[in-house]
Amino acid sequence: MREVRVRFAPSPTGSLHIGGVRTALYNYLIARKAGGKFIIRIEDTDQTRFVPGAEQYIYNSLEWLGLVADESPLVGGPHAPYKQSERMDIYAGYAKQLIDSDCAYYAFDTAEELDAARKAVPDNTFQYNAATRMNLRNSLSLSKDEVDQMLRNGVPHVIRLKVPKKDEIRLNDLIRGWVMVHTSTMDDKVLLKSDGMPTYHLANVVDDYLMNISHVIRGEEWLPSAPTHVLLYRFFGWEDRMPQFAHLPLLLKPTGDGKLSKRDGEAFGFPVFPLQWFDDQRGINIAGYKEEGYLPEALLNFLALLGWNPGTEQEMFSLEELVEAFSIDRIGKAGTRFDIQKAKWFNHHYLQLRPDSYFMESVRPIVVEAGLNSTDENLSKWIHLVKDRSTFLKDVVTEIQAVVTPPDLYDETIVASKWNEDARKGLSHFAQSLQNLADWDAASIKHFFNTEMEGLGIKPGKVLQLLRVVLTGTGAGPDLMTIIELLGKEEAAGRINKALTVLP
Fold it and tell me: Crossing angle of helices 421-433/489-502, nearest 10°?
């Protein structure tokens, strides 16, 4: 049985889009489930679009997410090199092989000639193919002597695939089933450019063959190119080694009207990159999921379910559980809307699973600066006070910061509706009596408060929300009695007494 070998083959032409991350994840899961190999290959033949730093960004993103490659430009492997720009001596030979077998040809058309040919066809429907190539300047329409002379003179040229005039290309896609395309609708794609660089079509087929790739799992946008790749496998005589194809459904905008693009992040107010990316054209940093506070395990879980259905009610999957459950046959054909609220839901749940040690470093400075008890036991209580209300680590920090900072303003609506002599009397008495409370914990404080209010003939519920307001400034928040416990007797009494002097 053939070993499962899959590749994630991004181009370093900018930041890694979140859709590319999902593609990498699906490849990784399929490889790990089958005990196969996950390969990273950098497809950098288009040097005009190369962006410095983009390749390292790809590695950093996958490392943060824990998608470790078995073979790559960084770790090497038996099929090195894994960067197409370092494999240039390979492609020209395979292009010449196609020329010699009459499956490809030299084309000498200038840019101006091609532009004129396009303009001569209405509605921009020009195709360089069997119907038009004999009217253009190429080794099929010119004599052998003319072609040889032009090659000797170094006349700029490309090598094009010679697509049969009347044929049908059949492809059994693992997600979409049989795809059939008539060759009359196909272009004679450029395989080798005038600068000697291969196009994606030639390079990826040659590399997939030489690296013994068993499955090509990539985005739906590559489906129109698949018949060209199938034809190349046929022309090379490699059909028995052709990988199985699976073209993934699109990630759609939240509105559902089109593919989620790199520009949509700012439009919809959420990240579309895994890590922060510097946009040198605008001179600004664009935050990624990491900088926004998303946990890698939450992002992976979220992305896995964008197009794949486990067939059960389970939603929370560790990476190991995803490996066990994942299968191509449960990937849907239809595009999936990108729902950032669902991503936040996952992050909230994974945040609850993080140990206290994850939060300590961020929480400790806040509590210390406020002059409050900062033992690990108390820090743990602060964390658990707000943790279940938080989606991100920064929410934990913000909520604790809001509580430990003495309020300067008080909720005007609550004060206006509830402040009266009974409230003043009850709060004043509570502040003075706190020193008499021996057991200092939330349950004891609650019992003490209720007992003291009832002793004054005041219903505790009439004063409780005002107590929160004078302690925190707001009328809602985490458990009030735990707040009092963590603030301590002096701080809690001091805040109540301050409010009594400020409020009418």
Answer: 150
- This prediction has a pTM of 0.93
Determine contact, residues 441/448, Cβ cutoff 8 Å: no
Question: Pick the catalytic residue: 83, 253, 259, 262?
Answer: 262
- Does 262 qualify as catalytic in the annotation? yes
- Residue-by-residue pLDDT tens, the chain, 504 positions: 899 999 999 999 889 999 999 999 999 999 999 999 999 999 998 877 888 899 999 999 999 999 999 999 999 999 999 999 999 999 999 999 999 999 999 999 999 999 999 999 988 889 999 999 999 999 999 999 999 999 999 999 999 999 999 999 999 999 999 999 999 999 999 999 999 999 999 999 999 999 999 999 999 999 999 999 999 999 999 999 999 999 999 999 999 999 999 888 888 999 999 999 988 778 888 999 999 999 999 999 999 999 999 999 999 999 999 999 999 999 999 999 999 999 999 999 999 999 999 999 999 999 999 999 999 999 999 999 999 999 999 999 999 999 999 999 999 999 999 999 999 999 999 999 999 999 999 999 999 999 999 999 999 999 999 999 999 999 999 999 999 999 999 999 999 999 999 998
Q: Are 224 and 190 in contact (CB under 8 A)?
A: no
Rounded to 10 degrees, the C-alpha dihedral 247/235/3/30 comes to -10
E strand residue ranges, 346-389: none
Instruction: Assign 285 to helix, strand or coil.
Output: strand
Q: Which of 122, 215, 116, 201 is nearest to 160 (CA)?
A: 201
Neighbours of 49 (CB within 10 A): 12
Is residue 81 reached through a cis peptide bond, with omega within 30 degrees of 0 on the bond before it? yes
Domains annotated for the chain, with CATH where assigned, are 87-248 (3.90.800.10), 264-351 (1.10.1160.10), 354-404 (1.10.8), 412-502 (1.10.10.350)
